[in-house]
Amino acid sequence: MQNCLFIGVDVALKGNQFCAMNFDQHIYFNLKFPNNPEGNEMVINKIKDIEDKFFFEKVIIVMESTGMYSFHPACFFSSNEYLNNYHTEVYQINACDFDKYKKSFHDLEKEDDIDAYVLADFARVGRTKSLYPFKGSQYIALQRLTRQRYHICKELIREKTYILTNLYLSFSGLISLNKNEMPFSDLFGATSSAFLEEFESPSQIIESSVEELINFISEKSKNHSSNLDNKITTLNKAMHASYRLDQTAYEPINIAIACSLNTIKFYQQQLKNIDKTILSTALGLDSNTYNILLSIRGIGKVYAAGIMAEIGNIERFSHNSKLAKYSGLYWKRNQSGEFDSQDKKSSKKSNKYLRYYLVEATASCVRQNFPFIKDFYNLKYNEVTKHQHKRALVLSARKLERLIFGLLRKNQYYIPIDSVQNSKNN
To answer: Coil, helix or strand for 58?
Structure first.
């Protein structure tokens, strides 16, 4: 560490501030360069001038992780041919970690040259030893896709939630039904959407004959619907229980409903398109990691791709607790004396994308009756009377995270206990 060149980079859209120092805190330069390839080449030339005079064995570059702004500089310096001769390591650090370290300095102002100095000093004192260096853009394409999928899913949920307000105004009886009483298996499916677009008010549905409604459902569902008589009875019951609006109010509300339905259809189609691209991209990366994740029953191809894209190289995590903190599946202990609070807040300084894919994969494992997760989910579900599903799901996601960590670190596929016992018996 004493014969290293430490460089802190304060990244911004138009220009990056670079501070280069040695172990004795001697600053060679603290200058701003354009955030483009030409500006980065200027930095390389400055480093060459220093290296010609002082002969450093290693170069450590630290920058704050600022999303897309820090990505290109990190790629440039980690793959630069000249810097690679000096075993260069590039680190992107969490903004919260940087703020905590900066607080150890007294009376510092918020300026670019000061932030770059603190980042360089962060590397100088050895705080990068627990971090994993940036390894280029091998996962960026897949990560962009899986994060875009997360964004689309959130927007889809938001639109579905919003449309319910308009649906309740026009068809309050339908929205009031329990899930197991609904005449349609999916309120936003093809048949249900056709109903909501075709019929303007509950009265129109009630005034339609049973034969007309049966023919309509059969046509829109392509003859896949069963128990049509029960569906029609439930539907008419819901329409009779609906509030009636002034006739002039139905048309604008129905236009709003149709707009939301079209938006939902668009998002659903985009999900199908992006899922196909995710699958083709994932196969071109670390197929071994991908196949290990797929060996766990319930983790589908898309969820496996999302988890793989966010974890990257499992070697960056020395213990499953570090992966749990990174994914947000970690709860701070609140203990004092003999008191140990049962209410523990989850960590918010985490990777929300990894948390999303782990929780979604857990829900899929529960639906697929994967015993390792399903049994634990049932155990946690029955422990409390409030928030049963959410609590059990997140705790089960923590258990799944430990399983994934163990399999990836050992580089082995998941083998069901039954298969192990059968092989021993044979």
So the answer is: strand
Compute the distance between CA of residue 99 and CA of residue 84 in angstroms, rounded to an integer.
29
Element housing 270 (H / E): helix 247-282
Strand 27-34 vs strand 335-336: parallel, antiparallel, or unpaired?
unpaired
**Contact status, residue 220 vs residue 186, Cβ threshold 8 Å:** no
- DSSP secondary structure letter of residue 347: P
Burial 218-254 (b: 16+ CB within 10 A, else e): eebbeeebeebeebbebbbebbeebeeeeeeebeebb
Q: Give me the DSSP letters along 331-388.
A: B---EETTEE-S--PBP-SS-HHHHHHHHHHHHHHHHTT-HHHHHHHHHHHTT-SSSH
Instruction: Report pTM.
Output: 0.76
pLDDT tens-place values along the chain, 426 residues long: 678 999 999 999 999 999 999 999 999 999 999 999 999 999 999 999 998 888 888 999 999 887 778 888 998 998 888 998 888 999 988 888 888 898 888 777 667 689 999 999 999 999 888 777 876 666 778 888 999 999 999 999 999 999 999 999 998 888 888 877 888 878 888 888 888 888 888 888 888 888 888 888 888 888 777 788 888 888 888 899 899 988 889 889 999 999 999 999 999 999 999 999 999 888 877 678 999 999 999 999 999 999 999 988 888 788 899 899 889 898 766 555 554 455 556 565 688 999 999 999 999 999 999 999 999 999 999 998 888 999 999 999 999 999 999 999 999 999 886 654 555 555
Residue 185's nearest CA partner among 236, 234, 241, 254 is 234
Give the number of residues written for the chain. 426
